[in-house]
Amino acid sequence: MFSNPKFLRSIALLIIIFVAACGKDKNDHSVDISTKPNRVYYGFYPNNIAFYTWSDSIYYLSDGRIDKIISKRLDYLYDSIYSQFGYNTNGRVETLTMRSRGGFYNEDYDFHYDALGRMDSMHVLEYGSLTDTINGKFFYDKNGRISEVKMFAIPKDTPVVFAHVYYFRDAAGILDSSRVVREINAFSYTESSATITYNNAKSQQKAFIDHDYLLFLALRDNPHLFSSSGEQNISDQLLNPDQLILKSYSRSWRNSGNTANNAVVTPFTADYYYYPNQFVKTLSIYFSSNERLRLVLRFEYPGYKLD
Fold first, then answer.
1. What is the mean pLDDT of the chain?
2. In the chain, which residue ranges form alpha helices assigned H by DSSP?
3. pLDDT in tens, 17-71
4. For the chain, what is the radius of gyration of the CA atoms?
5. How far apart are CA 6 and CA 8, in angstroms?
6. Higher-confidence position of 79 and 80
7. Helix-strand-coil percent breakdown of the chain, rounded to 5?
């Protein structure tokens, strides 16, 4: 039977089909990386003097998840950050390690998720420290949308809430505003608060920035998430992926000596620019009153480079 040429050809054909099918199944898990930005320029300008600018080189796994990010500080040439991502079996970020040559970024992050795949809690450990730890807890409403975040410091055995975030929505469930209350001195209960009102974010358009890169941006801007007066809307976008909220907004800030009536309100305007294929090229957020830049993100892709 095995000397029959027709039979042998049939067996060979079946082997070829089987091998091709296996190869196709394996490749089905890959992602077209050319659709993802491989370099992002980030600039944050909190006031007229200080500014922070970074160049992020993003490296991907074959399935499109981020493997690592190598960041170089452009306004301070001696600083850089190496960030390594780790994932759980469901493909969600489980660990993130950030190390910087300048020493400011030396955190180990662990993230935990609930049965629905939502972020449930996070743990931050300063590298080389067994005592300086931060925990975060995330809360959701009955419709599964983020409603609160609490960030805890752990001095000895007594957790202290040093940042409490509240999310407010309209009748349709669209995010209307977020409010962060920070304990300036957790033991004397002095506080500051910042409220962002998302005036122009009522559309159902989803966030365009990769979730894992948003997580990285939020933690680089604010290593303990919501603990300082960084760009709160980056963290808000991370936790509200089904709504594009990186748009025009107003920010109301007050410290413990001010009432809500005399809080400082600052409006911001957002502009988007696109490549010919409609990939986002630049997102600029600036002060509406004088058009001074507040935040800029500039994206490069394998086939599209900045001018």
1. 81
2. 5-27, 211-221, 232-239
3. 344 444 444 444 566 788 899 999 999 887 766 678 999 999 999 999 999 999 9
4. 23
5. 5
6. 80
7. 15, 45, 40
| DSSP assignment of 145-189 | -EEEEEEEE-STT--EEEEEEEEEE-TT--EEEEEEEEEEETTTT
Tokens of 87: 């994932």
Q: Read off the pTM.
A: 0.83
Q: Is the dihedral of CA 90, 92, 95, 96 positive or negative?
A: positive
From the list 236, 246, 218, the residue with the least C-alpha distance to 145 is 236
Locate tokens 């010919």: which residue? 276
Residue-wise pLDDT for 249-271, tens only, equals: 888 876 655 555 567 888 899 99
Residue position matching structure tokens 């950030």: 98
Q: In degrees to the nearest 10, what's the CA dihedral of 226, 246, 86, 81?
A: -70
Tokens of residue 81, six digits: 């950050």
